[in-house]
Amino acid sequence: MPPEPFFAGPGIDRADALRARPDEVAALLGNERATAVMWSDGAPALGIDGRLQWQSVAGDEPLFLGLDNGVPRFSTLPDGTVPTDSRAHFGMLGQLAPDDAPLFAAALSLANWHRRHGFCSVCGSPTDPNRGGWSRECRSCSAEHYPRVDPVVIMLAEHNGRMLLGRQPQYPPGRYSALAGFVEPGETIEAAVARELFEEAGIRVTNVRYLASQPWPFPSSLMIGAIADSTGAALVIDRTELDDARWFTRDEVKAALTGDGGASFLPPPRFAIARTLLEHWVAGSAS
Amino acid sequence: MPPEPFFAGPGIDRADALRARPDEVAALLGNERATAVMWSDGAPALGIDGRLQWQSVAGDEPLFLGLDNGVPRFSTLPDGTVPTDSRAHFGMLGQLAPDDAPLFAAALSLANWHRRHGFCSVCGSPTDPNRGGWSRECRSCSAEHYPRVDPVVIMLAEHNGRMLLGRQPQYPPGRYSALAGFVEPGETIEAAVARELFEEAGIRVTNVRYLASQPWPFPSSLMIGAIADSTGAALVIDRTELDDARWFTRDEVKAALTGDGGASFLPPPRFAIARTLLEHWVAGSAS
Description:
Two copies of one chain form a homodimer. Chain A is an alpha+beta fold and about 290 residues long. Helix content of chain A is about 20%, strand content about 30%. The first copy, chain A, folds into three domains: about 1-105, no CATH class; about 115-145, no CATH class; about 150-285, Nucleoside Triphosphate Pyrophosphohydrolase, CATH 3.90.79. In chain A, the strands form four sheets. In chain A, strands 10, 11, 12, 13, 14 and 15 form a six-stranded mixed β-sheet that branches. In chain A, strand 13 and strand 14 form a beta hairpin. In chain A, helix 5 (about 250-255) crosses helix 6. The interface between A and B is large, with 62 and 61 residues. Chains A, B: Its cofactor is Zn(2+); Mg(2+). Chains A, B: InterPro entries: NAD-cap_RNA_hydrolase_NudC, NudC-like_C, Nudix_hydrolase, NUDIX_hydrolase-like_dom_sf, NUDIX_hydrolase_CS, NUDIX_hydrolase_dom, Znr_NADH_PPase.
């Protein structure tokens, strides 16, 4: 079996039912074992072992993450300057311990959402955290707002045994990866996959199959990985989105994934679901 | 093959690339074939044939839906009172022509989003439609906001050949349907399925498989349909969410789907993806 995507896994017990009981959350905050996320440069801080760093709670931690083998875990909004470019965080992902990755994703996505939702989109008034930090309520119109999760399709397209990959302008030299795009209102996953592949590469696809999913906390996406069959090989590349797109053979993908020095391209990093999709394809589990 | 979910399908050509070219959208607005959605009670109006009703564009239609076999289609925000309870619209879904359902979903979801996003969540200032209505931009801080699509998992759980279904308090008498819940930040689809089934019914599941997806414009969800294997049959029902939950045999589900008068429950309506999931299971394509 190919590995699970990075950031996947059950994470901790979110204990959702407690969010509606502020007295119980307050009691957990007073629990001597309770700890809160430490932040560094706008992301959860990691120790040298790649594990999340925790500190004792200090008063009014507004975000209740859940119960970690009985330990109450809280989060706050990070202080200081927040990198606006999510790629600033990618360097640390190579260090992050896989077991802590789901909680890292939850804490960072939730913080990213709170940072940009201090005001009510309905009436413009200030909002305050509610439900242990899993919503915000407007002080004026009482509208309740919930954290966003943006579904994104990310997909491989196959034709005659070859796989379509593309490169975005900001990628490191030589890297090719799966094409991707946001699911829009009124679309299925399958329709979004077909639309994005046509828009970005000019191909028409059939037989869209779901493969795996991954939370992606930059700022708060749900990556939905799929594979589809292209009806042809001719490409019309959208140069506003992509530097290039090309078909690669299975041998080329295998060489890239094994880190072969002579590989024809640099594969996506281990923490990207695009790599998991390529591993599925090479292993034959995506057919 | 079981049918596709209602609201599924490619819909019209969204012509996304034009959204970044306001001059071209304005030219399409002046096209003599251009038409705009008619609204009735907060939803797109239907004719007696169940088709969407269109009117000529009147000046400043801010939302560009796309090209419908070359015909430019626009939308506005609906006037008048908007039903706050989405179930007010369910009656009309039985009339809606399946071919028009994807466009109905796109227009209604987009309108639902604009209605609640007149102000910037970052700074509280007014926002204006941008990109042909596919974003809103803040007049003050220039933050750009994109339409929300909220991913929801909706799932069947199987144990010893029986299927778990539940009923929400607002269902009509006798109806049972698939359990469902929002995907949260930091979760995979598979983790959300497992969490929701444990929270609402107290069961632990393995082997979560994706089946189908559906846009759901009340207000703007992406329903992600799945099936999982339960490790046991004992239920702990969350009575704040559900009136009841029960295991049903395949014969019971078959009888319900065929409208058998002696069926032990009323199945979900044809426009709900829960029904599609049950059809998959009965057809054996969900194994």
